[in-house]
Write a structure and sequence with these properties.
This protein is α/β, with parallel strands linked by helices. The protein is built from six helices and six strands. A six-stranded mixed β-sheet has the order 3-2-1-4-6-5.
């Protein structure tokens, strides 16, 4: 139950209603004008909001996720829950075993702790290369990113051209949403979410690269916590100015 005063709760619900209507309108336009389009779900709270919106609207937008081979058990549990709750089987893309074997053979199983370069190399093998396969043949892709999530996402646009992936249109329908609005939508619509969120994991990636955050820490503090904030992207979302 919310601890917000009634007027604040009403304001929040009104804001969520406006945000939701705008997101639905954008998603419908993407499905109409940029087919085929896909949604890359990382299964975070934001991604579950978009999953709910796409399924509720019955939109012809494919939904996929990247299984890096090192996801937490709770993320796999959510994949199963999505299937039961929505009748939706996510398309899963896995890393190429030969690339994983070569990288770990050369660098070690946990070499990503040793340098930013090695961590990004691991991310490339486990995330970027599978994403490239997932986006092949598409005209547009959708993410659940928000501008408030990290310093690397400040000024995040609703729409851009993704030059790193062949000039696809890239959409971030929740770019302007606040964290409170995301969770208000989840509560209002009974949207399933990753159990780790209830254990102080606001941002969830691979298990060895994700930890809980302490009170007052940034929402991305638990991702690659040994690195500086400006390097905390995996290469999936390259922004060129």
């Amino acid at each position: 139950m919310s601890n917000l005063p009634l007027t604040d709760e009403q304001s929040l619900q009104a804001a969520v209603a406006r945000r939701s209507a705008a997101a639905r309108e954008l998603l419908r336009a993407i499905a109409t004008d940029f087919s085929p389009a896909v949604f890359a779900s990382s299964l975070g709270a934001e991604d579950m909001v978009l999953t709910d919106l796409i399924v509720r609207e019955g939109l012809p937008i494919g939904i996929f996720s990247l299984d890096t081979g090192r996801l937490p058990a709770e993320t796999h549990d959510l994949i199963a829950t999505v299937r039961r709750h929505y009748g939706l089987t996510l398309r899963l893309y896995y890393p190429r075993h030969d690339l994983v074997e070569a990288w770990t053979s050369e660098n070690g199983i946990n070499a990503f702790y040793e340098s930013v370069e090695l961590r990004k190399g691991c991310c490339h093998v486990r995330k970027v290369e599978p994403l490239q396969r997932a986006l092949a043949g598409q005209r547009a892709w959708i993410t659940g990113m928000r501008a408030q999530q990290a310093s690397t996402r400040d000024g995040l646009p609703l729409r851009s051209v993704d030059t790193a992936n062949g000039g696809l249109e890239k959409f971030n329908p929740l770019a302007e949403w606040s964290e409170g609005e995301v969770w208000a939508y989840i509560r209002q619509h009974g949207v399933p979410y990753n159990a780790l969120h209830d254990r102080f994991y606001p941002s969830i990636g691979c298990a060895p690269c994700t930890r809980a955050v302490a009170a007052g820490e940034d929402v991305r503090a638990g991702r690659w916590w040994w690195e500086n904030p400006e390097s905390k992207e995996c290469g999936l979302h390259v922004r060129r100015v």
